[in-house]
Write a structure and sequence with these properties.
- There is one protein chain.
- This protein has 284 residues and is mainly alpha-helical.
- The protein has a single domain, classed as Ribonucleotide Reductase, subunit A, CATH 1.10.620.20.
- It is 72% helix and 0% strand.
- The protein is built from 13 helices and no strands.
- The protein starts with 6 loop residues before the first helix and ends with a helix.
- The relative contact order is 0.13.
- Bound molecules: fe (ii) ion (FE2) (2 copies).
- The site of one fe (ii) ion (FE2) has 5 residues, from α7 and α8.
Length: 284
């Protein structure tokens, strides 16, 4: 098992995202690509949706673990600053979203999503404490993919201000990942049942961050922007390998499978002569 996660220091280090010293005037002078204009609202929506994930989690047995309860309140607090920072960047860069654009969490809930929350609450009670391992593993995958996704955004952007904001967000994402990963490791290591249930549920139901709240075409577009090509493939392999080191999760290939499927879907669309907008955006 890797070294123990220091929850006390995590809590002490928690603070709102630091935007001091950001040169907002420079943000406007540097480019924001078409692809970024499409992708950033996705990130805003996903970040601001954390509170809804929290609602789901609070209905499960996860919060009976005092460390998880302490973590979750800080986690949701920190995430809420990420969406707002990106929103501010877009406004300062002159590509702001309409002021009355509803936040993702205020939009009408999809029936499927309400059902998933209800199902998670029921399964959590039925499976008992072992289900916490599944939640923590799930969280570790989402935080790790988010962290790597942000890294790709920072690498690809021509806007230095955006890159700097993203690097600051990444520090939080890395701490979040660390908590979920260590908790998953602890919960999986101590229960053979958790090591059976978790890989089964993850393999069946896991989808990348944003799936279920964003349209499928957007999930594919964002995933391919970040994880297509040689560099993306290396990140994807790293994600799968890292998760595959958790007890019971050997051979995890969720991210590579998703990206391969998204590539196949894009290929099919192109073959059917749909507008080349996606391909053109992707190439930027
Ligand atoms: Fe975040
Ligand atoms: Fe996070």
């Amino acid at each position: 098992m890797s070294e123990v996660f220091d929850l006390k220091s995590f809590i002490e280090k928690s603070k709102p995202l630091d935007l001091s010293g950001i040169d907002w005037a420079l943000a406007r002078r540097q480019p924001v690509s078409e692809a970024e204009r499409r992708i950033l609202p996705y990130f805003i929506d996903v970040e601001s949706y954390t509170i809804a994930y929290l609602r789901g989690l609070l209905n499960t047995t996860a919060i009976e673990d005092p460390e998880i309860a302490d973590f979750l309140s800080i986690w949701a607090y920190e995430e809420s600053y990420h969406g707002r920072a990106i929103e501010r960047f877009m406004a300062e860069a002159g590509v702001g979203l309409p002021a009355d654009r509803p936040r993702s969490v205020q939009r009408k809930r999809r029936p499927l999503e309400a059902l998933q929350d209800a199902a998670a609450a029921v399964v959590s009670r039925a499976v008992g404490p072992d289900f916490v391992a599944t939640h923590m593993t799930w969280g570790a995958i989402q935080e790790l993919t988010t962290l790597n996704g942000y890294r790709r955004l920072a690498e690809r952007t021509q806007n230095e201000v955006f890159a700097e904001i993203v690097r600051r967000i990444m520090r939080d994402e890395s701490r979040h990942f660390s908590f979920y990963y260590h908790k998953a490791e602890e919960r999986l290591a101590r229960s053979a049942r958790a090591r059976t249930v978790t890989p089964f549920l993850v393999r069946r139901f896991w989808k990348p961050v944003g799936a279920g709240i964003m349209p499928d075409a957007e999930v594919d577009f964002v995933s391919l922007y970040m994880f297509d090509g040689e560099r993306g493939a290396a990140e994807v392999a790293h994600i799968d390998r890292t998760i595959g080191r958790l007890p019971g999760m050997e051979g995890f290939d969720g991210m590579s499978r998703f990206v391969a499927d998204a590539l196949a879907r894009r290929g099919t669309q192109e073959n059917h002569g749909t507008p080349a907008r996606d391909a053109a955006l992707q190439a930027r």
